[in-house]
Amino acid sequence: MRARLAALAALLLTGTAVPAASAATSADGTAAAEPDTEPPRVLVWGGTYGFRHPSITTGERTMLELAQATGEFSVTVTENPADLSMATLRDYDALMWISTTGKAPITEQQRDEVMRWSACGGGNLGIHAVLDSEYGWPEHAQLFGAQFDSHPHGAGAPPARVVVEQPSDPTVAGWSDADSFPMRDEYYRWRGARGVPGISLPRDLPGTEVLLSLDETSVADGVQEGDQPYEDNQPIAWKRTYGDGRVFYNNMGHNESTWSVPAFQLSLVNAIEWLAGVRPDPECLDADAPLPDGPQPPAAEPRQIGKPCPIPAMRETNATEDFRAVHTTDTQALNGGIPGNFAWGAQTWVVDLSPSRARTADVTIDLDWSLPTDDYDLSVTTGWGYYGSDNPVGTAREQVVIDDVPHCAILQVAGDNMFAPSMSGTTATIDVAPDPARPPAPGTGPRARRE
What we know:
Layout: H1 2-14, E1 41-45, H2 55-70, E2 74-78, H3 86-89, E3 94-98, H4 108-119, E4 123-127, H5 138-144, E5 148-153, E6 160-164, E7 180-183, E8 187-190, E9 209-214, E10 235-242, E11 245-250, H6 262-275, H7 282-286, E12 323-326, E13 329-334, E14 342-351, E15 360-368, E16 375-382, E17 385-389, E18 397-406, E19 409-419, E20 426-434
Parallel strand pairs: 1-2, 1-3, 3-4, 4-11, 12-14
Antiparallel strand pairs: 5-8, 6-7, 6-9, 9-10, 10-11, 13-20, 14-19, 15-18, 15-20, 16-17, 16-19
Helix pairs in contact: 1-6
């Protein structure tokens, strides 16, 4: 393995790329060969419906060149949202999302087909701003394991230091000769990753293995002392599973220069090899089997039942107006924003069930705005996963219902404006319906006072 990696790294460093078109295949091309003999087939999706990164074109070209130079896989590039469907995906082993900001104009059926293909063994490779997209589509967030919050260390800042957490993993082999390395790029903060007890995503999301993380002491001057600090060693690259499929994500790739770094290119090639270790199962693709379960709330901490929830200290951020406990209902006006995929308004609530001594509650969250021509999507981040809603334009309301929310759970609620010409802002309302209170578990109730 080491010899192959060294040879491949040398090839990527010294090889001359052929014209990009020679590596492409047609989305409806020839019949596929047996998956155990044919190199993995990769569909590169670069469609954007928010800010378009110039590096998308660079990334598309780089993937075509890598396919030609290495022979390790074949590539088809598309920016046609119709290709996000089972009719196209069944001919591919991996789907690569390159900074696909905004909300793609695809149907609910297409979403279900992307998820079914993924759960049946399809591999997903996400780059940079794929996590600044598809707000309100909770399965997308659950698939990749994170959502964008902000990027205080910008693209033009000096290189930050990236920590190699899994040096033996082939997907980071190009950086494994040292404990860390400097890299100039734009680094995201993640929703829920605020150092608040109870939420630390994506690191704590089940099935996630962090490969690279950010040394927050190395970011641009003033960031850690400002209102958008990074958490300790926040994840930068990771891999995870979704059903029978595999997922690899790397937050790098904003800067066009990143795509020419040999270690980054080697990471992409080896990530595709890992993703293709499982190929889509044709029988599964055509079956009507249920998709993987959504996020499952944890049990409440028994010793905390009936006690008021602590409100953790939390810094103000561009996406946080307040942070407070809610017992039964609360409403918060969220700020407006700039049209075009900017998440401006958010509210973080602690579900405090101490007055009812309930262990869990059913929680309903509504997002409302004044003009039906605006389009906001509702995203909810919890310590155990993601929820969301994105009704069509004209509805002027989104709603998420979460059952069995445990006492003292933290919910981060965001109104993401996809297309809101008025910039009028939104109102978030939370209603908490405690489940019937249960007697405290033995040994957890108040002690009897001795006379």
